[in-house]
Q: What sequence folds into this?
């Protein structure tokens, strides 16, 4: 009994697995860009741009703090 | 240590957005037809709208508080929050248009969600125009606060309710599932939610700097 069912089940499972695998590879993603690591260059560029904006925001923030302090001293 | 305690939310905002940039591009995303890699725009385009809605919520809360207390500070905060919200909304509509070009083939379709987004932005631009056209401070603050509540209700109607009641191409509307419902592994949520919080915190930071600069200006004018 087991000898007959096992191949059927395994064939069934295998066909599902292969179907899912083929469905996945059918849809085009940037797999090449990922495998050769060039995606990291894009990520690095975006991170640098964002950090540049953050540095600018921080400098604005500190400048505001400095002027606030100055005003406080002048008023007292 | 004192610095970290005072600025922890700014650091958190920077960290979350950095994580969204890095994780959003490098972590696994579901393989879906038509969308392909552009599904990652969920981390960037959709977060703009969520950040916008959170900022508009803050704005309307300040407007209500203004109407309860007639404290001019609340009016100022409501205006600044709405201003940053408009910036995020513009980013949202422009990024959405680019995304539409590559998934639907055109920059703009007459879709309830898209038109609703455009109307919402126009309503908030009208808020800015209304403010600028009134000179008297008290009257401006009161009118703007009432209008802001009205605008917020329309924001909810046009972005959240109407698109869901009709057919829409846009995901999450009219029986069209949003990404999260067919995303099985939930990895997208791991980036998506922090990205919303991160961008909102960056927006609050920008608003806070503006608020402080305006207060400095006011103080200088008072001293003269």
A:
């Amino acid at each position: 009994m087991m000898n007959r069912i096992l191949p059927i089940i395994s064939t069934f499972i295998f066909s599902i697995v292969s179907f899912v695998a083929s469905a996945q590879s059918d849809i085009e993603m940037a797999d090449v860009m990922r495998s050769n690591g060039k995606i990291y260059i894009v990520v690095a560029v975006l991170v640098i741009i964002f950090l540049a904006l953050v540095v600018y925001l921080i400098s604005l923030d500190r400048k505001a703090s400095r002027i606030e302090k100055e005003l406080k001293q002048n008023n007292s | 240590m004192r610095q970290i305690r005072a600025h922890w939310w700014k650091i958190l905002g920077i960290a979350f957005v950095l994580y969204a940039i890095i994780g959003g591009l490098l972590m696994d995303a579901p393989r879906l037809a038509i969308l392909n890699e552009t599904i990652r725009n969920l981390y960037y385009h959709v977060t703009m709208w969520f950040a916008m809605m959170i900022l508009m919520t803050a704005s309307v809360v300040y407007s209500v508080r203004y109407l309860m207390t007639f404290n001019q500070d609340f009016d100022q905060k409501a205006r600044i929050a709405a201003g940053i919200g408009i910036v995020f909304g513009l980013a949202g509509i422009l990024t959405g248009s680019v995304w539409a070009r590559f998934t639907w083939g055109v920059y703009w379709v007459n879709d309830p969600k898209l038109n609703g987004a455009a109307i919402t932005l126009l309503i908030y631009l009208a808020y800015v125009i209304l403010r600028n056209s009134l000179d008297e401070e008290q009257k401006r603050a009161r009118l703007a606060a009432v209008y802001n509540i009205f605008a917020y209700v329309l924001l909810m109607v046009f972005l959240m309710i109407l698109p869901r009641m009709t057919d829409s191409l846009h995901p999450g509307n009219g029986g069209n599932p949003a990404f999260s419902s067919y995303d099985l592994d939930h990895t997208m949520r791991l980036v998506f939610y922090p990205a919303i919080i991160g961008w909102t915190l960056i927006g609050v930071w920008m608003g806070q700097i503006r608020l402080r600069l305006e207060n400095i200006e006011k103080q200088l004018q008072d001293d003269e």
About this structure: The two ends of chain B are 38 Å apart (CA to CA). Residues 16-214 of chain B form one domain. The longest helix of chain B spans residues 187-223. Chain B has a mean pLDDT of 89.
